[in-house]
Design goal:
Number of helices: 13
Organism: Glycine soja
Oligomer: single chain
GO molecular function: D-arabinono-1,4-lactone oxidase activity; FAD binding; L-gulonolactone oxidase activity
CATH architecture of the largest domain: 3-Layer(aba) Sandwich
Distance between the termini: 23 Å
Strand order of the largest sheet: 17-11-13-12-20-21-19-22
Pathway: Cofactor biosynthesis; L-ascorbate biosynthesis
Catalytic activity: L-gulono-1,4-lactone + O2 = L-ascorbate + H2O2 + H(+)
EC number: 1.1.3.8
CATH topology of the largest domain: Vanillyl-alcohol Oxidase, Chain A, domain 3
């Protein structure tokens, strides 16, 4: 379900199994001036990056571009096709004693997909936590003129200036066919989660990120609690064979998912904030007691620290491997069952303003203590660390990435409980503190004016024009994200309820009187007066 609830259509889907087949597919589409988009195996991006224009476009799936092409143990590099999943990469690297140092925590992403959106883990060490900053070479199939057969495969290494455009490309340059990553020798980590009162969170946040290599913080604002992940490398001979099977990424009985969703729908419709607060405390306490899914030996959690090999701790996603059991169990967000249905707001703010942002959020908690219980049902606010990247559309400075997941109604005209509070947080991060939106998450408003925050946006757009002069890999939506067209926000009845329209940047929103639309205009039913429980 896309942010604007539009339905994505394509005339056909093609499944190339080699770069040669991929070149032939792109050539045929270019010759016929057919719009193209790349689709990955599981497709987790929230914005409409995958939608080709109109109904006659072509989807190119990387599902069968899923082979490990080459491993060079001496050079510590691995070359993979772009449809290889994180899980595959991690496992294959470990077999030859290598490891990807930093990565997203969910392993159901493909290498091409996570590069396309700039996905990352958490660290301020080394080159940072973005996987694309460990890419030393890639091959990309792009449109070409008739003299070159309408398509060609381009090889980009670290000396090639276009690599910085291709490392985070939103899929608008062409189709990445192969990626070579620089790895490290396999190592061990030690993880301890420490829960504390959040009163000094603002003071701690920057120092904590510098102090621990794999640090992150999970914040539960209504409970005034922060859980610090104390996570560092340890000597290889340290005993321990821990495993991280993160509980929210495990297969969940579909019946349980349906009951949870029905309960939350009821709480929303009756304004039962207390019910959400009780539920969120139970959820949080269960996760903390169970160490979020860490085990000391792959079976049971007994004590901190949990020590184990990088490949067993860095990412998880066992719900993807659950049995083909007629959907008796599923990933919690699987749209084929009645389960989670949510918005995600994810942005990164400069480490230098992280303290101020946290303090602003804490002021909102004081105003409305129950206002954040809803996000705590989805494990609160995840705060990860990211470093400045050389990629033109990568992170611009060392930053704190704020990741919030929250309830979305099946009815686009129904306001959420305490919607105004979360809208305020979103606008604080993105407008007041100039946060960069995560390209693969977020509602439309997060991308309003976003491209102006990237100092090398002009360079990226020049490479885009060189690689795809006809814009066959672009759509109206990607043009809007990149500032080439107006229309990221959509003005219509109820637009503010789903983040499709916003306040102007110069009127910082006040939950009691601002209506999340441009001043001076009235959009029928777009106002969110949650205190009155009306639209």
């Amino acid at each position: 379900m896309f942010p604007d609830r539009s339905i994505c259509k394509a005339s056909q889907v093609l499944y190339p199994t080699s770069e040669q087949e991929l070149v032939s597919v792109v050539a045929s589409a270019t010759r016929n001036k057919t719009k193209m988009k790349v689709a990955t195996r599981y497709s987790h991006s929230i914005p409409k990056l995958v939608c080709p224009e109109g109904e006659n476009g072509l989807l190119i799936s990387t599902k069968y571009l899923n082979k490990i092409a080459k491993v060079d143990v001496e050079a510590r590099t691995m070359t993979v096709e772009s449809g290889v999943t994180m899980k595959q990469l991690i496992n294959e690297a470990a077999k030859v004693g290598l490891a990807l140092p930093y990565a997203p925590y969910w392993w159901g992403l493909t290498i091409g997909g996570l590069m396309g959106t700039g996905a990352h883990g958490s660290t301020l060490w080394g080159k940072g936590s973005s996987v694309h900053d460990y890419v030393v070479e890639l091959r990309i199939v792009r449109a070409a003129g008739p003299e070159e057969g309408y398509a060609k495969a381009e090889s980009l290494n670290e000396q090639h200036e276009d690599l910085n455009a291709a490392k985070v490309s939103l899929g608008v340059l062409g189709v990445i066919s192969q990626v070579t990553l620089k790895l490290e020798p396999l190592f061990k980590r030690s993880i301890t989660y420490v829960a504390k009162n959040d009163s000094d969170l603002g003071d701690q946040v920057a120092a904590f990120g510098h102090a621990h290599e794999f640090a992150d913080i999970t914040w539960y604002p209504s409970q005034r609690k922060a859980v610090y992940r104390v996570d560092d490398r340890v000597p290889f001979n340290t005993s321990g064979n821990g495993l991280y099977d993160f509980i929210p990424f495990r297969p969940t009985p579909s019946l349980e998912l349906a009951i949870l969703r029905t309960t939350e729908d009821l709480q929303e419709s009756t304004g039962d904030a207390d019910g959400k607060c009780i539920g969120s405390k139970t959820t949080t306490n269960t996760l903390i007691t169970a160490a979020y899914g860490l085990t000391n030996n792959g079976i049971i959690f007994t004590v901190y620290p949990v020590i184990g090999f990088q490949n067993r701790l860095q990412a998880s996603g066992s719900c993807l491997d659950s049995l083909q059991d007629a959907k008796i169990t599923a990933c919690a967000w699987d749209s084929r069952v009645k389960g989670e249905f949510f918005h995600q707001t994810t942005f990164s703010i400069s480490l230098s303003v992280a303290k101020k942002f946290i303090e602003d959020v804490q002021k909102l908690v004081q105003l409305e203590p129950k206002g954040f219980c809803g996000i705590e049902l989805y494990n609160g606010i995840l705060m990860r660390y990211v470093k400045a990247s050389s990629a033109y559309l990568g992170k611009q400075e060392d930053a704190l990435d704020i990741d919030i997941t929250y309830y979305r109604s099946k009815d686009p005209m129904t306001p959420r409980l305490y919607e105004d509070i979360l809208e305020e947080v979103e606008q604080l991060g993105i407008f007041k503190y100039g946060g960069l939106p995560h390209w693969g998450k977020n509602r439309n408003l997060a991308f309003e004016g976003a491209i102006k925050k990237y100092k090398n946006a002009g360079r990226f757009l020049r490479v885009k024009e060189k690689y795809d002069l006809q814009g066959l890999f672009s759509s109206t939506w990607t043009d809007q994200m990149l500032g080439l067209k107006d229309g990221v926000t959509i003005l219509k009845d109820g637009c503010a309820l789903e983040g499709l329209c916003i306040c102007s940047q110069d009127s910082h929103c006040n939950p009691s009187k601002d209506y999340y639309c441009k001043p001076g205009k009235v959009y029928k039913e777009a106002r969110v007066c949650t205190h009155l429980k009306s639209k």
